[in-house]
Design goal:
By secondary structure, the chain is mainly alpha-helical. The chain is 66% helix and 0% strand. It is built from 17 helices and no strands. α14 runs antiparallel to α15. The longest helix has 15 residues. The radius of gyration is 25 Å and the shape is globular.
Amino acid sequence: MKKLMDFDGLFDEKLARYMRENAGKYTEKQWESVIGKLYRQFGDIYVASAGNTPIGYYREMSNAELIDSLSRHIEEGVPVSDFLCREIESRGCPEELVALLSSENEQLLTFAVNLAGGNPAAFDAYFDILRTSGNEDVKEAVCEQLKAGADFAKERALAMFGSGSERELMLEILSRVKERDERVFELLMREFRTGEELPMHASYLAEYGDDRALPALLEVIDRDDVNFLEYQELKYAIEKLGGEYTRPRDFSDDPYYREIMEQSSLPPAEQEN
């Protein structure tokens, strides 16, 4: 078993020395670019304590060793370097990484989700996380990955919606499906027509991109009971689908409209507070 290497700590030591030697040479913005370049170069520099370069150190490891190293870094509080993450990502989505998606350590779980990314090999585990996790940040990260691979996630998302679990998240994922599917379109339309969460459900139709939704969107936006926030989202959806809504509307008595106008008229410092 290879020892844990704090490559980021070693780089920070070298960087501190370099910054002292080059004080005043770069602006703050220039330093950002310089530091990134130095870090990339560091990956190919031989480190005696590792017996290899940072990139080479991880490249020599098997999949199991890489994932074990990641777990130990988290458990022992040693910073996880980009060199380790990049090597894991370059391997695709090995079984060892998928196994981490059932971890109860939320930090390790977050790393696993980010490293597995949109690889369909992780999708079964992702849906298990959505069903069982109480961590909204983790669920949001999983949802982002499933949206990126929505066509591969479609059948599972339809089934999970049908079971009544995480219905809004399932709609969000299904709205990103690229291959046309009547089941998806009809579901998004049905949920929009319920009138609940109108802005959100209108945004799903906009994301799905089927202009057959235009008549329903135009009918709803023309209702006098639509508030300003709903109006804005509906108008955006209509325009994204290639439509147009031009009837003048007066929202001067709408509380949402007044609040937005009041906020926009405040001096910048007050708006931030």
